[in-house]
């Protein structure tokens, strides 16, 4: 009686393992990353910006790992800058190059968005506290900063 169920158990166990591996590698991770936990674009970092001409039209998104303001504003700012007509650089304020840019633009808070248009820069905070003291994304500030985005 035990031998009768050996083959179906083996087939079922193999299918379960293959299915779990498939979703772990191809299914859940990309979907989760794309739609739930958007992250900073690692292709355009502080090092790339330092190598680019200063008077270019660009957006600089400053952040710090572990910063509660940066975490709350991250999704909102990433969604808007994806539509920007200008390149966006993500600057980790904890790196050496990031610190150089913090000094250059006189950044006080990590959750800062800078727009550079024709060499002129403007600073915006992309997260703030609401009236109840809860940290939220400052969507008005983000939209004001990036009002020249594609629709």
Describe this structure in words.
With 151 residues, this protein is an alpha+beta fold. It has 2 domains: 3-35; 46-145, Glutaredoxin. 44% of the residues lie in helices and 19% in strands. The protein is built from 5 helices and 6 strands; from the N terminus they run ααβαβαββββα. The strands form 2 sheets. Strands 2-1-3-4 form a 4-stranded mixed sheet, with helices on both faces. A two-stranded antiparallel ribbon has the order 5-6. Strand 5 and strand 6 (135-137) form a beta hairpin. The longest helix has 30 residues, at 6-35. It is elongated and about 75 Å long. The model has no long low-confidence stretch (mean pLDDT 82). It comes from Streptococcus varani. This is Glutaredoxin-like protein.
Secondary-structure blueprint:
Blueprint lengths: L5 H30 L10 H5 L7 E6 L4 H14 L6 E5 L3 H10 L6 E6 L2 E6 L1 E3 L5 E3 L1 H7 L6
Parallel strand pairs: 1-2
Antiparallel strand pairs: 1-3, 3-4, 5-6
């Amino acid at each position: 009686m035990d031998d009768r169920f050996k083959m179906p158990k083996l087939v079922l166990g193999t299918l379960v393992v293959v299915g779990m591996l498939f979703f772990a590698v191809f299914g859940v991770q990309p979907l989760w990353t794309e739609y739930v936990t958007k992250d900073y674009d690692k292709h355009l970092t502080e090092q790339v910006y330092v190598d680019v001409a200063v008077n270019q039209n660009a957006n600089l998104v400053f952040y710090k790992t572990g910063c509660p303001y940066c975490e709350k504003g991250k999704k909102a700012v990433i969604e808007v800058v994806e539509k920007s007509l200008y390149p966006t650089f993500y600057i980790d304020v904890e790196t050496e190059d990031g610190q150089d840019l913090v000094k250059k633009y006189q950044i006080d808070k990590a959750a800062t968005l800078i727009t550079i248009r024709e060499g002129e820069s403007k600073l915006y905070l992309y997260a703030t506290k609401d009236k109840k003291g809860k940290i939220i994304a400052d969507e008005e500030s983000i939209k004001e900063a990036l009002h020249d985005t594609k629709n």
